[in-house]
Design a protein that fits this description.
The chain contains eight helices and 16 strands. About 2% of the residues have low confidence. By secondary structure, the chain is α/β, with parallel strands linked by helices. It starts with a strand and ends in a 9-residue tail after the last strand. The chain has two domains: 99 residues, Immunoglobulins (Immunoglobulin-like), CATH 2.60.40.10; 299 residues, 3-Layer(aba) Sandwich (Aminopeptidase), CATH 3.40.630.10. The protein is globular.
């Protein structure tokens, strides 16, 4: 049994994660100019409301999704067919519609298959738009949605281009670059995809969304182009919170001049996004959103192309890419982590065990005080369980992660795992 050292090394916000030179090189391919060109085309469709015209070749949600499909297909052609491009349709009743109308919600997906085709990482953005501040069901008049969410959709499409070029044979896990429809009508496209993946038996490592990632000027004139918010849901030991800590660490490694601001709640107050269906399914979910939202333009025809800062969107996309690439290269998160109190020591020490992970070269145990926002100690747990933790776990949060042969690290499985509170 591996034992924890008496004086473990301390880690900073990076949590012992390491920089992958190949991934860093790939991230340098992310182009603000390409993101700008993509968003310009999306905004030019006039409206992309999920209930808008589907027959026109120049206007409406139908024209937008066909162009997205064609563009992603061209990326696949460039990499020898490495991406699988598909329409992902579903007839959905709009619950927030007083008339309870149904709409054909069509996501556009680009799959980059990995060595493990059953373990998927979802990186999404919603391509539909709306004039919701005026009329949620106006599917006719202009709703350019250049920031919400042309910016996030353009970033996701750029990630699909870069990863298909740099990793034509895929990573360890499968990546799904998802362009959702129906977000503005109640997270319809992402809810459908999350349900489809779970019913299909996939293990969802993470369901992440880029939503509103291009504005840097607030209505009062304040400017912030150097930080992005990452929303990670409760509880403090949830998969989403562990994903938030992981992204926070990667930001310090790959973009130290760009600040990821962890926000420990599922989303902004009284708001929602396409990560939430994954959070609700028990997956790790995360939202990337600009630091300064300008509500004088959001969900209005003034959410136009002129007010999007594409250099900023590219920085967000690089953080997305660092996350997708790091998770994609890592082994699976350890399963069935169990901590047992060692009564022979009077209950102060613990034995930690877990199921071995395919492809893992070794494991690490991470520790933090219950009041610490992230882990402060990283312990080498050896190549096989169990691990003797010579600490009083009652006073700590702990977790176990798998480390691949090349140093790629999985998300952390927490000890104890998140469970409903039982009071009697």
């Amino acid at each position: 049994m591996q034992a924890s050292p008496a004086s473990p090394a301390h880690a900073d916000v990076q949590m012992g994660l390491v920089r992958d030179p190949k991934l860093a090189e790939a991230l340098s391919d992310i182009s603000a100019a390409r993101i700008r060109a993509t968003d310009s085309t999306l905004a030019a469709f006039g409206t992309r409301h999920a209930m808008s015209d589907t027959m026109s070749s120049t206007r409406g949600v139908g024209a937008a999704r066909r162009w997205i499909f064609q563009t992603l297909s061209s990326y696949s052609s460039d990499c020898g067919g490495c991406l699988r491009i598909e329409y992902d349709p579903a007839m959905v009743t709009i619950q927030r519609d007083p008339q309870k109308r149904s709409v054909n919600i069509v996501n556009v997906l680009a799959w980059l298959p990995g060595r493990d085709t059953g373990r998927v990482i979802v990186m999404g953005g919603h391509y539909d738009s709306c004039r919701c501040s005026l009329d949620s069901f106006d599917a006719t008049n202009d709703a350019p949605g250049a920031d919400d969410d042309g910016s996030g959709s353009s970033a996701v499409m750029e990630l699909a281009r870069v990863f298909s070029h740099r990793y034509p044979h895929g990573l360890d896990a499968t990546i799904i670059f998802a362009l959702y429809s129906g977000e503005e009508l109640g997270l319809l496209g992402s809810s459908h995809l999350a349900e489809r993946l779970h019913k299909g038996g996939y293990h969802v490592v993470a369901g992440m969304t880029d939503d509103i990632d291009g504005n840097v000027v607030a209505e009062d004139g304040h400017v912030d182009s150097n930080s992005v918010r990452i929303f990670a849901a409760d509880p403090d030991n949830s998969p989403s919170r562990e994903l938030g800590r992981y992204v926070w660490a990667l930001d310090a490694i790959y973009e130290p001049e760009f600040t990821a601001l962890p926000v420990f709640r599922v989303d902004r107050i009284h708001r929602g996004g396409d990560h939430m269906p994954f959070v609700g399914a028990g997956d790790a979910g995360l939202r990337f959103t600009e630091r300064l939202e300008n509500y004088t333009r959001q969900h209005l025809p003034t959410d136009d192309f002129a007010h999007v800062n594409f250099g900023y969107t590219a920085r967000v996309a690089k953080l997305n890419g660092a996350t997708v690439g790091s998770l994609g290269a890592a082994p699976a998160t350890p399963d069935s982590v169990v901590a047992t109190r060692d009564t022979k020591t009077g209950g102060q020490h613990w034995s930690v065990t877990w199921k071995p992970v395919a492809g893992a070269a070794r494991y690490e145990v991470l520790l933090r005080e219950t009041t610490s926002p992230t882990y402060t100690r990283v312990l080498d747990a050896g190549a096989t369980p169990p691990f003797a933790l010579n600490e009083q776990l009652d006073d700590l949060w702990a977790g176990v992660r798998a480390v691949g042969p090349d140093g790629a690290r999985s998300l952390t499985a927490t000890i104890p795992p998140p469970v409903p509170l039982v009071t009697r």
